[in-house]
Amino acid sequence: MKVAVLKGGVSAERAVSLVSGEACAEALRGEGYDVVEIDAHPDTVADDLRCVAPDVVFNGLHGDWGEDGEVQEILDRLELPYTHSGVAASRLAMNKDRAKDVLVQHGITVPQGQTARRALIANGGLLPTPYVVKPNGSGSSASVYIVTEETPELLAKMRDDKGLGDEPVIEPFIPGRELTVTVLGDRALCVTEIVPQGDWYDYDAKYVDGGSRHIVDVDLPEAVTALALKNAEIAHRALGCCGVTRTDYRFNDTEWPENPTESDVVNGLVMLELNTQPGMTPTSLVPEQCQHRGMSFGELCRWMVEDASWPRRALNPQK
């Protein structure tokens, strides 16, 4: 079977995608596939794929164009089976503000925030500090600001940062612990706590060796673990996702009661976002959780290829 691995792309996450794509291509060759790597660009990817004529496309792209439904639409037009989520789910999950509306409808706690013009946010005063400003449609912690003090220098930097987009998300900063859950198919695997070595889980903490410590299957209050797994599966279905996703949370245990109620658990576990194209680098969380469950990196990549389909739609979407 011939597999085309799309990597690179044109987003701010290009460097991450190149590493993800190369790692997945190497793993798939180890599993016996005929692999062709394509440094994907909007102007050339359709012709490249017609030339290669793959049986399956492994989407190793991240960020704008690769993760937001654009390349998925091209793959649909070419009628090629591909990995990860389809057009509608990719567009919805990539739009943090719209995705949060759907999650709330399914009883999931999310940060109470809004989108606003970048220039308006840069005037300050929209939310009390500390708060977070981030793009409404990208990942890898690019152009993310945790504002503890509205200094003129920081406000000017946000005003000039085109990586934020025209209407970024601004939301309260959630204190506590960083958690993440992988969903593989329709099953949540486990909960990992991410302990950044710096002040917060920024780009270097995600992708630089030693930038963060991962505690896989972390010991949490039983009700918190159960809800994190349950809500990750609910979000995966509610957004119409396929294949592999990763859901990120903040668990606010800064004033955790000795005998927490159900309300304490629901309000304390805040879902930040769902990633339809989670990282597949050597330091990434999804391969780590899969390995913890007995699935090697090569077996994970093989599962994703075998799971690929066209049309790419969720089998059991949650209404």
UniProtKB/TrEMBL annotation:
PROSITE patterns hit by this protein: ATP_GRASP
Report the residue ranges that make up the ATP-grasp domain in this protein.
100-306
Location of this chain's protein in the cell: Cytoplasm
Q: What is its main location?
A: cytoplasm
Q: Which GO terms describe its molecular function?
A: ligase activity
InterPro entries in UniProt: ATP-grasp, ATP_grasp_subdomain_1, D_ala_D_ala, Dala_Dala_lig_C, PreATP-grasp_dom_sf
Identify the pathway. Answer: Cell wall biogenesis; peptidoglycan biosynthesis
Q: NCBIfam families of this UniProt entry?
A: PRK01372.1
Q: Which family does it belong to?
A: Belongs to the D-alanine--D-alanine ligase family.
This molecule's function is given as: Cell wall formation.
The cross-references to HAMAP family, in alphabetical order and at most eight, read: Dala_Dala_lig
Protein known as: D-alanine--D-alanine ligase
Q: Taxonomic lineage per UniProt?
A: Bacteria, Pseudomonadati, Pseudomonadota, Alphaproteobacteria, Maricaulales
